[in-house]
Amino acid sequence: MKWSQASDAGLVRRVNEDSLCVEPGLGLFAVADGMGGHRAGGIASRTAIAELVRFLKAHHPLPDDPGNLLVQGVQEANRLVYQLSSSSASYRGMGTTLTAVLVAKEYLHLAHVGDSRVYLLRGGKILQLTEDHSLVQELVRLGGLSEEQARCHPQRNVLTRALGIEPRLEVDGGQVKLHPGDKVLLCTDGLTVHLPPHEIGTLVEKNPDLNRAVKKLVEVALERGGSDNITVILMAVE
């Protein structure tokens, strides 16, 4: 497994409240997009990532069902962020997305909350493995919006599920069998608000070098306004 990653504050926000995790020893890769005033979003995203890493290291080596363990780790991260948000007025209301994958043997296990995303790129096609927990995605699912309208909707940042908001949290899980040549991309919505999936796939395919592909994805998002923090992890299965 090879990988490359980047995180950029963008051109509008002064602070980067995204966080990312690359832990090859665990097979763990994750992105988190924090929200909340007084820089609390950054604290939320960093806390969630750190707790997930701590939890998985405490249970290493991984059990026969690593996907279930990954989901439990995200739930533990939620518990810690929720406790922190309840401990101080300056942290109240903070939260974060968290989208994580765990590579174990030939399988990719995932756990997901929020509107950060995981894409699988295989055979010239791109497949979204996660579903956004957002108001506009609900409208798309009900037929009230198209995917293109949702990408530009003024309420696209309104989440229906995030870490730190409630003491208990439903986490989406899943697994995919990986094939040699597959690529997996994790990103926050600072990328997807500016690049639709087919364009992400095209840029990755045209730039086989992972570092070059990641750099190009961030560059294009910035050229189109860089309206949010941009975080990308791109992995290649050998």
Account of the protein in words:
With 238 residues, this protein is of the alpha+beta class. Helix content is 34%, strand content 27%. It is built from seven helices and eleven strands. Strand 5 and strand 6 (107-113) form a beta hairpin. Helix 1 (40-58) packs antiparallel against helix 2 (66-85). The mean pLDDT is 94.
Identify the overall geometry.
globular
Strand content: 25-35%
**Number of E-type strands:** 11
**CATH class placement:** Alpha Beta
- N- to C-terminal distance: 6 Å
Largest sheet: 6 strands, antiparallel
Instruction: Enter the CATH topology name.
Output: Phosphatase 2c, domain 1
Short structural description:
With 238 residues, this protein is of the alpha+beta class. It has helices at residues 40-58, 66-85, 135-141, 147-152, 189-192, 197-206, 210-223; strands at residues 2-8, 18-23, 28-35, 95-96, 98-104, 107-113, 117-122, 125-128, 172-177, 183-187, 230-236.
Which characteristics define this entry?
alpha+beta; 7 helices; 34% helix; Phosphatase 2c, domain 1; 5-stranded antiparallel sheet; 6-stranded antiparallel sheet
Walk me through the topology:
Elements: E1 2-8, E2 18-23, E3 28-35, H1 40-58, H2 66-85, E4 95-96, E5 98-104, E6 107-113, E7 117-122, E8 125-128, H3 135-141, H4 147-152, E9 172-177, E10 183-187, H5 189-192, H6 197-206, H7 210-223, E11 230-236
Antiparallel strand pairs: 1-11, 2-3, 3-4, 3-5, 5-6, 6-9, 7-8, 7-10, 10-11
Helix pairs in contact: 1-2, 6-7
